[in-house]
Write a structure and sequence with these properties.
By secondary structure, this protein is an all-alpha fold. The protein has one domain. It is built from six helices and no strands. It has helices at about 5-15, 15-25, 25-30, 40-45, 60-65, 85-99. It is globular and about 25 Å long.
Amino acid sequence: MSREGVVKLITRALEDESFRTQIKANPDAALAQFDLTPDEKAAIKTGDASRLGDVAMDERVSKVASTSLIAPSSQTTSLIAPSSQQESVIYWLIGLFKA
């Protein structure tokens, strides 16, 4: 897996509101900006967090995630509740693509 591509995607989505808008408007174009494998793109777009589960967050994503307020929304209510910060961020990211 292209761990760095997933980390960059998560970091940008957490920090950049206009990018989150772009995700909703054109998910394929948003994902194309990152070095992601076809499996990673499919996992993100279909909501298969288990396929991304082995992508560990690095320190910068953990730091950004810990200072960001990721509020529960209708985008994530249908997903299984995550049990860790890493899972929370992955489910939040997937929720952006599911909306």
